[in-house]
Amino acid sequence: MVKSIVYTLIAILLCIGFFIFTQWYLGKQFSEFYDVLDALYVKIDDETATAEDGYAVRAMWVDKKSKLHIFIPHNDISYIDYWLSECCGLLHDKNYELALGKVEVLKEIAKNLPDAYTVKLENVF
User: Fold this and answer.
1) Of 32, 56, 80, 93, which is most buried with the most CB atoms under 10 A?
2) Mean per-residue pLDDT over the chain, rounded
3) How far apart are CA 88 and CA 100, in angstroms?
4) Confidence grade of residue 31 (pLDDT, cut at 50, 70, 90)
């Protein structure tokens, strides 16, 4: 009886620890991604951004997404890939106005996506 209680408490503590780690990790990764997107947004707004700037952001995202597949669904990751690819294409064509809108969407995704995977009452039910 005592062993069962101890094992149950250990399992609960491990789950809580995993949830805390996941929340912290996702917040950190998307915060870094948001900062890079914000810097790209400023360069696009100044019309000094090049396609290489977009490709650098995409390279950073590719590195991050390889680790994020563990925590978030592939659909959310491919959604970011889609918007980022469109932005890179627009930067290649020097269409700054449309690229600015794509980066704005990416910033919003980076800001809101981690909240969808936190342990909150609205996410459980």
Assistant:
1) 80
2) 90
3) 11
4) very high
Predicted confidence (pLDDT) per residue in 47-74, tens digit: 999 999 999 999 999 999 988 888 888 8
Q: Taking the model in full, what pTM does it have?
A: 0.84
Q: Name the one residue in this structure whose structure tokens are 């977009």.
A: 54
**CA nearest to 108, candidates 25, 26, 23, 38:** 38
CA distance 90 to 41: 13
Q: State the Cα–Cα distance between residues 35 and 28, nearest whole angstrom.
A: 11
Give yes or no for residue 122 having a pLDDT over 70. no
Question: What is the distance between the terminal CA atoms of the chain, rounded to a whole angstrom?
Answer: 32
DSSP letter at 118 equals S
CB 37 within 8 A of CB 107: yes
Amino acid of residue 16: I
DSSP 36: H
Tell me the residue type at 117.
Answer: Y
Residue type at 68 in one-letter notation: L
- Distances from the Cα of 23 to the Cα of 27, 31, 58, 84, 88, angstroms: 6, 12, 23, 24, 29
